[in-house]
Amino acid sequence: MLNEAKQAARTLKKKPKLAVVLVGDDAASKVYVQRKQLACEHVGIGFQLFSFPAVVSEREVLEKVRQLNADKSVNGILVQLPLPSNLDRNKILGAINPIKDVDGFTPFNMGALALGMEEFVGCTPLGIMKILEAEGVNIEGKHCCIVNHSIVVGRPVAQLLLNRNATVTVCNKYTKNLAACTKKADILITAVGLPGLIKGRMIKKGAFVIDAGIAKKEGKIAGDVDFNSAKRVAGYLTPVPGGVGPMTVACLMHNTVNAALLQKHR
What we know:
Layout: H1 2-10, E1 17-23, H2 27-43, E2 46-52, H3 58-70, E3 76-79, H4 89-94, H5 107-114, H6 123-134, E4 143-147, H7 154-163, E5 167-171, H8 178-182, E6 187-190, E7 208-211, E8 215-217, E9 220-222, H9 227-230, E10 236-237, H10 244-264
Parallel strand pairs: 1-2, 1-3, 4-5, 4-6, 6-7, 7-10
Antiparallel strand pairs: 8-9
């Protein structure tokens, strides 16, 4: 995917450019932003970072987003999540011009996804779908269980699967008897951030398991799935780290180049 984005970027007269807005000092967010910058350098995408302290006013962040909307040299805008609690996430994300919304979080792009229009899809959900496609998984008619109902992963993934005629169950922390839901799934996707939440006994034999959860456990990065017990049951199983994470970054590059191509023709 990175090489495809690199080749597509070379067809443009003007180098694509990604602008990232980072608020606060969250260590994980800084690491993610750094990875995105390195990927941009690899693909040939310009990168510009705008950092704000956690105490920044909402008005100031919104003004920066509006400036980036108006800047014709910027093709993609990404507001790094999570935002500090004093900022209205939906208001700030909603201020991004939909054609520059390379994270797919604006109401316009989320609504378009619900209608089956998949122009700008969130990078992690898109990465998950790319994994399924690469392995030749026929989604139609499959029972899919998603353990997450956020706008970042759960809801857009559910919609992508529904668009491909899957039967979808979405679980959250209020779900009663989680194992009863996960055990039925031909495709199980989890993104909670609770290490070891999904045990092997909760997985259907031969299921395709995608672990998009990430957290620290005993000083190491860990996913939601207990890998050792799950690998004895699952047909496919993505690792953490090294599974969904790199795909998320690759899909951001894809979306940024796609945004530049679309803006060229509009």
